Amino acid sequence: MSEDLQQYAHLPLKQKSNRVWRTYEGGALIDRWKNIQPETDGQMPEQWIMSTVTARGNGRPEDEGLSLIETEAGTIPLKNLINSNPELYLGEELAKKYGTTGVLIKMLDSMERLTVQVHPDKDYARTVFNSEFGKTESWYVLNTREINGEKPVVYMGFKKHVTKAIWQTHFENQDIEGMLDCLHKIEVKPGDAFMIYGGVPHAIGAGCFLMEVQEPTDYTMRVEKTTPAGLKIGPELIHQGVGEEKMLECFHYDTFTMAEALGEWKVTPEVLEDSEEFTLKTLFNKKHTNCFGLRELLLEGTYTIKNNGSFYVAVIYSGEGTILCNGKASQYAQGDEIFISAAILEITFESNSASKILLCYPPS
After folding, report:
1. Are strands 74-77 and 68-71 parallel, antiparallel or unpaired?
2. Helices vs. strands in the chain: H and E counts, helices first
3. C-alpha dihedral over 211, 216, 218, 224, to 10 degrees?
4. What count of Cα atoms within 13 Å lies in the side-chain half-sphere of residue 167?
């Protein structure tokens, strides 16, 4: 059976829809991106892409979050394909080091502000969760909308006046306004990009549709026990089972001015290649993290990507066209999510209409 599964490593593989339940509401802009009508906000505000990890939360389906791939033989979990031959699908170096993708990609659309939270850095994850991955992540803002007249914002990083004692007091009193006032509030627009390292407090505001590329875990420590919409959050989603005191140790209590915060975490995309037919930009790369990478290909013509020794993922944000791979042609369209294994030496995208293709890469 594993040999049968290995044949798919030589083809671009499209993922089936993979919406995931969360404690906040949203998702209408995911519907718009996927050309789904009607566009609806609800409790499935995230689309997980090329995921080999499950979502955390009591009472949820056992395999929620795991990606399924469409093949000629039917639907197969991506995890099964990779496990059939990790070196073939992932690349030799990645297979030996991790044995898994090493990255998780999400499309996230918030109708309400997400709870104030933090993710573990690698040291905390290793010590507390016995995990080689923390949850450093990145945000690339793709679209925004005003909710109840409020402009879209994100919150990140402690202001200069904050101490651990002040933060703990706000948490114990569940002083949400006090907690929000401890964080820098940053208005965002499409094209903005941010790194959110493990240990940095943050919250995504209402009206943000973004791509989140991150380490492949679902470890989230929350300091709000009730969401802005009034949903009670259970202890397992507050502190992940480690207790409130240990949860507060996950935060890094460094403080910043607004200018320092933007200098620390806001990323300016850079053009790598440019021609009449395409523009290739880098957003997140080794200058920012060795946990993952993200590039953006703006295409009005033809572009060929050479293999660099590992898999990558192409997310079609807009446009349509043809993919040429190993002598075969297939179509791509807005909303497609395509896994390209390490076995594919080169692949060519030919646009029929102006296309924006987001290229997501594993740890370097």
Report:
1. antiparallel
2. 11, 25
3. -50
4. 27
Alpha helices in the chain (DSSP H): 2-6, 28-33, 78-84, 86-90, 92-97, 122-128, 164-173, 176-181, 235-239, 244-248, 258-265
CB contact set of 327 (below 8 Å; sequence gap of 6+)? none
Q: How far is CA 288 from CA 50, 131, 261, 282, 350, in A?
A: 22, 22, 14, 11, 31
pLDDT tens for 56-95 read 777 788 899 999 998 888 999 999 999 999 999 999 999 9
Distance of CA 272 to the CA centre of its chain: 22
Residues 5 and 323: their CA atoms lie apart, in Å, by 21
The pTM assigned to this predicted structure is: 0.95
- Residue 10 DSSP label: G
Per the document, the length of the chain is 364
- What CA–CA distance (Å, rounded) separates 253 from 159? 10
